[in-house]
Amino acid sequence: MVGLNGVPECGSVLASVKNEKQAKKLCQERTADQREESLRNNRQANLEDLLRQIEEEARQNLNVIVKADVHGTMEAVCQALGKLDSEKIRLNILDRGVGGITENDVQLAKASDAIIIGFHVRVNVGVSNVARLAGVDIRLYSIIYELTQQLRESLEGMLQPELREEALGEAEILQIFDLSRSKDKICGCAVRSGIMRVGSKARVHRGEDLIYNGSIASLRHFKDDVREIRQGFECGIRLDNFNDFEVNDRVEVYDYKEVAAKLDV
User: Fold this and answer.
1) What is the CATH number of the domain that holds 69?
2) How far is CA 236 from CA 172, 188, 250, 252, in A?
3) Could you give the angle at the alpha carbon of 38 between the alpha carbons of 265 and 5, nearest 5°?
4) What is residue 177's predicted lDDT score, i.e. its pLDDT?
5) Dihedral sign of CA atoms 182, 185, 190, 195 in order
6) Residues 64 and 130 grouped into a single domain
7) Is 168 a domain residue?
8) pLDDT per residue over 207-242, tens digit each?
């Protein structure tokens, strides 16, 4: 038998109708019923599902619809995609099927904010224009590694960047100075390593104890206000809302750097 748009599943019933128009109508009705039933089953939630939803509501989601040329390939693709699911972001396979990408796939993707992944399949005539107007992303692949790599990049692109602490430098307090016009104090320091920078985070250590965690309010080199000063030089440091300095305290300077988040899979 030739002329079918897709590969029927084992046990499917072949019905005979009067003409092609009636056949298309019957096909569309059955397809809609099947997908409605599938979505209805997915929506049914018991208490455990609701509790899990509350726990995981902070996780982001990427919804996908998978189409492949044969059932075996479709299962392999879905298995590969399942490995990308992580604690940070969930990959939901909303629907899967065999055959070309149809207008019904596009409508489902639009309604569920999903992308369509096609593996060794074509996009049916006119469907690309429908997808473009609907704002639906269709991605076609022929190599599973390429598919998983690009999907991983898309998932990581949805994650918020992570903040990591970056050490900038360290200074030793040599002398304490009182400011004549205020109650603030400036600590005269020798920069032992790295760099001191206005606005950067700072910690003050006294022996093994941490006594301050804040930021650098200003820097002076001799009588000049400066934005930064490097190892080997001496400077005056005024910390934000802290005056309890002692000679030999250590000033540790650091900052936070944004780095691209990675999936924990």
Assistant:
1) 3.40.50.10050
2) 11, 5, 13, 14
3) 95
4) 87
5) negative
6) yes
7) yes
8) 999 999 999 999 999 888 999 999 999 999 999 989
C-alpha 74/C-alpha 9 separation (Å) is: 13
Instruction: Please check whether residue 123 lies inside any domain of the structure.
Output: yes
The tokens of 71 are what? 């059932």
Answer yes or no: is 94 within a domain: yes
Measured in degrees and rounded to the nearest 5, phi and psi for residue 61 equal -130, 145
Report the 10 Å Cβ neighbour count for 133.
Answer: 10
Domain end point (choices 106, 138, 158): 158
**Phi, psi (5° rounding) for residue 78?**
-65, -35
For the stretch 10-65, pLDDT in tens is 666 777 767 777 767 777 777 777 766 665 555 554 555 665 665 555 567 889 99
CATH number of the domain enclosing 176: 2.40.30.10
Domain boundary among 158, 179, 211: 158
CA distances 72 to 14, 60, 79, 98, 187, Å, are 23, 29, 11, 10, 71
Question: Whose structure tokens read 């104890």?
Answer: 209
Q: Is 103 helix (H, G, I), strand (E, B) or coil?
A: helix
Q: Are 79 and 175 in contact (CB under 8 A)?
A: no
Q: Is 56 exposed, middle or buried (0-12, 13-18, 19+ CB in 10 A)?
A: exposed
Q: What is the DSSP letter of 155?
A: H
